[in-house]
Amino acid sequence: MKFCVLGSGSKGNSTYITDGGVNILVDAGLPVRTLAERLSQVGVAISSIDALLCTHDHSDHYQGIRGLMRVCPATMLFANEGTAEGIDRAFPRASFEWRIFESSTPFNIGSMTITPFPVPHNAADPVGFTIASEGRMLGIATDLGCALPSVQESLADCHALILESNYDYDMLMASDRPWSVRCRIAGIRGHLSNDAAAEFIQTMHTDKLQSLHLAHISHECNTTYYAHMSMSQALLECGLGDITLSCLRQNEASLMYDV
User: Left (φ > 0), alpha (ψ -120 to 50) or beta: where does 253 sit?
Assistant: First the structure.
C-alpha cells in the first residue's frame, strides 16, 4: 500500500491511497483542478479514483467534492450520516449518492479494510480512519482537539500515521486572532498542538509504527521547524528515534510513501 498527501492545512486537505487494485481519496478539500494536477505529479489520473472517504463537514475537507463528482461521476462517496448531511447542506443543488458508514464499524472497498473511528473536533460527527491492506495499516487523524485513549487505541497497530500537529501554543496565543478563536483552536474539540501531538505519540505505546507524517500545520501559528523539532525530540525520548518523520505542506504534494 502507498499514499501521497496532496495537501494539508486550513486551505484544503486530501490524501491519495492505493494498494495497486483500489485507488481512494480521504477528503477532497482542494479544487478539482489542483487535485488532478497533484495526482498527475505522482503518475495518477484523477479518473482512476474509485472512492472518496470524508472525515467531517468542514469545507477545507470537502470543498472540491462537487468538481470531483463532475469529472469522476463513478467515484463512490463514503461518509457517516452527520458528515453527509453537513456536506449536502453546503451544496443544496447537488444530489450526492452517499454510502453511509457507521463510526467504529469496519467496511471494505475492494481489498482495503476501512475502519472509521470518532475523534473530538468541532464538527457534526468527525472521524479518523485506519486503512489496511495485505497486513499493512495507515492511520489518518488530522483534526482532533485532544488525545483520547480511544483514538490512540485505534491507531496503535498502524505502520504509517498521518497525525495533526497544528499549532505552537506560544505562537497561537501571541497571534492577532480573536480570543474566542484562540480558545476554540486550543480547546478539547479544536486542534492538536505540537506538544499535544508529541505527547500523543509518547503515550500511544506502539511497536509497529515506522513512519509518522505531521499534518495540518498552521501557516500563521506554527512552523514546520517547530513541529518537527517537538516531535523528533519526543520520539528520541521514548526510544522511537528511528521512525521516519516528515512535515506535510499545504501548497505541494508529498512524496509517495510506502506503508
Answer: beta
Range list of H helices, the chain: 32-41, 59-62, 65-71, 81-90, 149-155, 169-174, 179-186, 194-202, 224-237
Per the CB < 8 A criterion, the answer to whether 131 and 152 are in contact is no
Give the Cβ contact number of residue 63 at 10 Å. 21
Take residue 233 and report the three cell numbers written for it: 525530540
- Per-residue pLDDT reduced to its tens digit, 60-97: 999 999 999 999 999 999 999 999 999 999 999 999 99
What grid cell was written down for 259?
Answer: 506503508
Residue 104, domain CATH: 3.60.15.10
182: number of CA atoms within 13 Å, CB side?
Answer: 14
Q: CB 129: neighbour CB atoms within 10 A? A: 26
Residues 6 or more apart whose CB falls under 8 angstroms from that of 11 comprise: 60, 250
Phi, psi of 54 (to 5 degrees): -110, 130
What pTM did the predictor assign? 0.97
Range of the domain at 245: 2-258
**Number of compact structural domains in the chain:** 1
The rounded distance, in Å, linking the Cα atoms of 50 and 185 is 34
3-state helix, strand, coil in the chain (%, to 5): 30, 25, 45
Per the DSSP assignment, residues forming a β-bridge with 5 are: 15
